[in-house]
Amino acid sequence: MGRNTALTDLGTIDRAMVVFAHPDDAESWAGGTVAVLVRRGCEVTYVVVTNGDKGSSDRTMSPERLSIIRRQEQCAAATILGVRHVEFLDYADCEVEDTYALRREVTRQIRRFRPGLVITHDPRRTYDVGLSHRDHRIVGAVALDCVYPLAPSPMAFPELSLECDPHRVSEVYLMQSAAPRLFVDISATIELKGRALACHASQMGEPAAVASAVRARAASLGERCGAPYAEGFRRVSEIGERVGEGPASPR
After folding, report:
1. CATH class entry, domain 14-236
2. pTM over 0.85
3. Fewest 10 Å CB contacts: which of 64, 77, 82, 185?
4. Residue 235: helix, strand or coil by DSSP?
């Protein structure tokens, strides 16, 4: 195992949430981990920020039709992995901004489903490993702001108090990181990850090619942590300043 890396068993997480930009992002970067969590009895919720309506080079495709297709694909993929809740925020693809409305909605979802773990994009992905989609960077940054300080503060979005109480997330995994330090062994769920990704037919190639690519990337990450197949993350476990803010919410 490489220096400054760790292979996690995911602890005792009862509820987890994946906040991501486009249909297929969760399966691409964390599908195996999601399946491992579900197998351990964890309730997983997806929060899909955009409808993916720009994700096609087919000039005969309309954004409206594509958004319907991608919603159906995302629901099918979530079902394969055992995700219980899929919340679509329906923002336009490529047009996400860090706004009050988006922060409020992501905060509402965190307070509503009360995850111990949030998985989201690494907003600081560096360009030396390739271009990063603006929606990924913005959604990751918004999700982190909602984890702290917004979701645990009763003073933030007080109008939400009629729906749900403030909630403190215990830890965050940043997916799609250029320098992952935490790894999850997905050897037992690699097949499910491939099947789930193949549901995104509007974005992916032939299922066999998808499965091969999934295995190759997971094997490369596995070499870094001593597992046959793995997914990698950056982990944030210190969530804000705890002094004077009360105990963390239970997982």
Report:
1. alpha beta
2. yes
3. 64
4. strand
